[in-house]
Every structure is written in C-alpha cells, then in structure tokens.
Design goal:
By secondary structure, the protein is of the alpha/beta class. It is 39% helix and 19% strand. α4 runs parallel beside α5 and α16 crosses α18. The chain binds hexanoyl-coenzyme A. The site of hexanoyl-coenzyme A has 16 residues, from α5 and β7.
Length: 514
C-alpha cells in the first residue's frame, strides 16, 4: 500500500502520542481512570469501535485559549457489553477539562442517533467542566442537541449516565433526563450552581462534596441511584445493571435459565412476619427468599429506604420489585418513596419488565411537613405510575394494607392483574387503633377502664375486619396463600400473564402529576 499506508500509520501514531504516559498519570493522580481506560473497561475486550477519533476541534479562541485536540475531548463509539451491542461516550477531563464544544457534542449526538436507530442502550461516562467557554453559544447548542436526543430516546432505549468527575451547570440535565445515574465516591459531583455562586448569593460556605457529592445525591436528593467506591467498581455496576435490561422497548428483558426450582417451597417465609403487628422486619429477607438464587439488585438503596425497589429473576424471567420496608418508618409512604417508586415503575413499564409488589404499608405519612411539601401531588405520581403500567402486575400483601395505600400499591381496582395475600394480611380502611377511636368513641368515653376496652376492641377489629378473608371473599384479592409457596405462586401467574395485552385510550400524552 506504500505511501497511503504510511499516512495511515502516521495518523495512528499522532493519536497514540496524544495519550502518552503523562496523560494517564494526570488522571490517576486525581484518583480516576482515564476516559480511554473507562470505555475500554466497559466494553468486552477487543469489541470497541471508536467513531471520529481524528476529528479536530471546531476551533475558536477566547482570552488566548484555543481549542485543539484530536477527538475534541470525548471518546465515542460502540461495541458489546456482556456480548450485547451498546453505545457509549466517555468525556476526557485531560482535554480542556472535558468541556463540551460543538464537535464534542456532535460526536455524542452521532452515537445517540445510531443507538436510537438500532435499538441499543447508551452509556454516558461524564467527566466535564460543562459548556466550553471559548466556543460560546455553539457549545450551548451542543447541549441542546444532546438533551433533545435524551428525551427522544427516553422509553425507547435504556440510557445510563455515570458521573466520574465534575458535572456542573446545565450539563447535569443530560444525566437527569436519562434512566439511571451512577456516581464514583469522592471523585464526582453534580450541581446546577457551584460553591462559589452559593457563597456569593447566600453567603454559605459549602464544599463540592457537601453540595453535590455522591453521598448527597444517593441518599438525600435522590438524583443518583448507584454509588460505587471507584471508577472500576462503578463500571462493573453498570455491566450488572445491563444484565437485567432489554436493549430496547420492543425486546423483552434477557431470560437467563438457572437451576433454582420454580416450585421451591420456602418454609422460612412462614415466620418472617412477626406476631406483633407493630414489630418491624426486613422486607429484603422476603425478596431474597422468593427470587432466583436470592439475587436482588437493589436500585437507589440509600434513598427513601421505606420503599425498596430493584431487579431480580423468577424462573429466569426478569422482574421489577417494589416493596414497602417495615424496618424504615414502618413502611409508610412519603413524598420521596412515592417518587422513587413511580420512576422505577415507569421504567419497568417502558421496558417490558413485570412488576411484583410486596405490600406492608400502614398508610401515607401524616404531618404538616409532608402535606406542605405536596404529598398529594407526589403520592399521585405513584398511583398514576401503577395505574398506567400495562406490564404484568402482581401483588403479595404480607401484612398491613390500609386505606389509600391499599389502593395505590397495585390494588386490583387500579389494574393490578393478580393479588395474593398471606394469612397475616390486614386489609381495611384504616388500622385498628384509628378505626376503634372513631367507631367506638362514645363507648370508650363511658368505659370504666378505657385502655382495657380499647385493647379488647382492637383485638376484635383485627379478628373480624382487618384480615385477608373479607377481601378474598369479595374478589379484591385472588388467593390467600401459604407464604412458603410464594415463589411458585408468583411464577405461575407470571407465566400466564406472559402474553398480557391491553390497549390504552389514544392520546398525545397523559398529564402526569408533577
Ligand atoms: C473551557 C474549561 C472548562 C470550560 C474547565 N476547563 N472547564 N475550559 N470551558 N467550561 C479547563 C480549564 O481551563 C483547565 O485548562 C482544565 O480544563 C482543567 O480545569 P481546572 O480548573 O484546572 O481543573 P479543576 O481545578 O479540577 O476544576 C474543575 C472544574 C473547573 C471545577 C470543572 O474547571 C470549573 O469550575 N470549570 C467551569 C465549570 C462551569 O461553570 N462550567 C460551565 C457550566 S454552565 P488548562 O488549559 O488550564 O489545563 C454549562 C452550561 C450548559 O455547562 C448549558 C446546558 C443547558
């Protein structure tokens, strides 16, 4: 090939030189992997194809700062992850702080377009100072183009963002428009306005970590669903999540055969719910005993812990699990848990993942704090999400199922397909204490020993009203089951609902409560 090939080799050499030893040391000294190491680690070995590696920056000079780099500070392309096609881009903090210029943005939108056209997930590895200052409005337009594609791809292909360095200003909105956000502990942060602006406007001193570090976003704001101790573990986490997701909204999630028998009887489930109705237990113990091989991949485990959500398999089929957590706030529903549940359900519905609900909920959390912050409109998000979802929806009522929470947590009335109840289920308009206080106010006021009478009436209410058999006889639940058989019961219903098909009224969009 002669001269033509020499030129090809020369270009490859230039690219290599851009990534010399110094390049690696710079990122490693920050406790981070380089953009190239990250993307190569994400894809199966040898499978990554890079697009536009040689494309130069758009140029533009402001205050003597010129943009110049092969690839314009982002590595983009496609390959296989766990043997399945995927697209990704990885921002390079070593090149102009990973800032986003016009060419950088065009590379990202190229892979977004290819992913949407071919029906494969997009993974964004973000490490960027945001809009490239010297390119001005062209870089803002670049973000706008990315955001538009994030929205078009929403519910069509899974979109995952990993924050592995800074994500500041409006740049946070691309991750926020995607389905899941991962963060590396101690080296990543996200905020709309940084500590300097906070200081100027509010005179508050705050560090980047306190303002928008991984801990804050995974436990307080709910912005990030996953935190890993470093970049390498974070990438393994993304790979694990992908094993539960279909490549697009037309496919089903990956079925994985395993040797856990679908008719496994789990006697331990009979004793998990304590005799005392006010005693807590960990609902994750129930989940692990029911799902294949006890493997449960929890989503947003540090946020709104009164509701547990995550992925697992039953008989090899992927399911999304939503479970009240009696161990935290007695499992009551508040604003954060309603929003967490709604978002999880919306994703499951978009991507054909059946939803299994384990219910033990005393009701919505009362109080001025919740009311003033909008438990009405936020609780409505959960109700809306469950009702709108057309994937198979199965409920198991473990214990408490009271009032509005009974309705919201996938009752048959809002479209739940099948409801089981354990013999320990308490289904009623309200809990025994509240009900007796209202129904028997006069008798209690006249009693010689009101406390003893209340105890007696509460026990009677539990026996006669707050049990699963009334709902069973009226058809509001389908079966009262032996807890030990929960796994096989769910599996059978999952199988029969496999071909579930329902159509919703035609409309442009529903007006989701916000
Ligand atoms: C151009 C940038 C840049 C940017 C960083 N760099 N951010 N260049 N445009 N936005 C360059 C720096 O000049 C420097 O170049 C190199 O990247 C590394 O940056 P440092 O500041 O030395 O690194 P560090 O101390 O780690 O600080 C990182 C940082 C800081 C916190 C991200 O750089 C920073 O505050 N950048 C600006 C963040 C920001 O406000 N971005 C705009 C957000 S608004 P040299 O040549 O010296 O190595 C936005 C609008 C989006 O993004 C709109 C969407 C709606």
């Amino acid at each position: 090939m002669g001269i033509a090939f020499d030129k090809y080799l020369e270009r490859q050499k230039q690219l290599e030189e851009q990534y010399g030893a110094e390049y690696y040391a710079k990122q490693h000294n920050r406790g981070k992997l380089t953009a190239r190491e990250r993307i190569l680690m994400l894809f199966d070995e040898g499978s990554f194809e890079e697009v536009d590696a040689f494309i130069p920056s758009a140029g533009g000079t402001t205050f003597g700062k010129t943009t110049k780099a092969f690839g314009d500070g982002v590595i983009a392309g496609f390959g296989t992850i766990n043997g399945r096609q995927a697209y990704a881009y990885s921002q390079d903090f070593n090149v102009m702080g990973g800032s986003l210029g016009a060419v950088h943005a065009a590379k990202i939108t190229k892979v977004q377009d290819m992913a949407l056209k071919t029906g494969h997930p997009v993974i964004a590895l973000i490490d960027s100072g945001g809009a490239r200052i010297q390119e001005g409005v062209a870089s803002l337009n670049g973000y706008a183009n990315i955001f538009r594609r994030n929205v078009l791809a929403s519910g069509v292909v899974p979109q995952i963002s990993a924050i592995m360095g800074p994500a500041a200003g409006g740049a946070v909105y691309s991750p926020a428009l995607t389905d899941f956000i991962f963060m590396s502990e101690g080296t990543s942060y996200m905020f709309v306005t940084g500590p300097d602006v906070v200081k100027q406007v509010l005179n508050e001193d705050v560090t980047t970590e306190q303002l928008g570090g991984a801990k804050v976003h995974s436990s307080k704001s709910g912005v990030a669903q996953f935190v890993y101790q470093d970049d390498a573990n974070l990438i393994l986490g993304i790979k694990r999540l992908l094993t539960y997701l279909p490549s697009n909204n037309i496919e089903n999630p990956p079925f994985v055969q395993n040797d856990d028998p679908t008719d496994r009887v789990e006697v331990a489930l009979r004793d998990i719910v304590p005799e005392d109705p006010d005693k807590p237990y960990d609902v994750r113990d129930v989940i692990r005993l029911v799902v294949d091989k006890g493997r449960f991949f929890e989503v947003a485990e540090n946020f709104a812990q009164n509701l547990v959500v995550g992925y697992a398999r039953i008989g090899g089929y992927v399911v999304g699990i939503v479970a009240n957590q009696p161990k935290v706030m007695a499992g009551s529903l508040d604003i954060d848990s309603s929003v967490k549940g709604a978002r999880f359900i919306n994703f499951c519905n978009a991507f054909n993942i059946p939803i299994i609900t384990f219910e033990d909920v005393p009701g919505f959390l009362p109080g001025t704090d919740q009311e003033h912050q909008g438990i009405i409109r936020n609780g409505a998000k959960l109700l809306y999400a469950y009702t709108r979802a057309t994937v198979p929806k199965i409920t198991v009522i473990l214990r408490k199922s009271y009032g509005g929470a009974y309705i919201v947590m996938n009752s048959k009335g809002i479209g739940g397909d099948y409801s089981f109840a354990w013999p320990t289920a308490e289904i009623a308009v309200m809990g025994p204490d509240g009900a007796i206080a209202i129904l028997c106010r006069k008798e209690l006021a006249a009693a010689e020993d009101p406390a003893a009478l209340k105890k007696e009436l509460v026990a009677k209410y539990r026996e006669e009203v707050a049990n699963p058999y009334i709902a069973d006889e009226k058809g509001f639940i389908d079966e009262v089951i032996d807890p030990a058989q929960t796994r096989s019961k769910i599996y059978r219903v999952l199988k029969t609902l496999d071909n579930k098909s329902v159509s919703m009224p035609r409309r442009k969009n529903g007006n989701t409560p916000l």
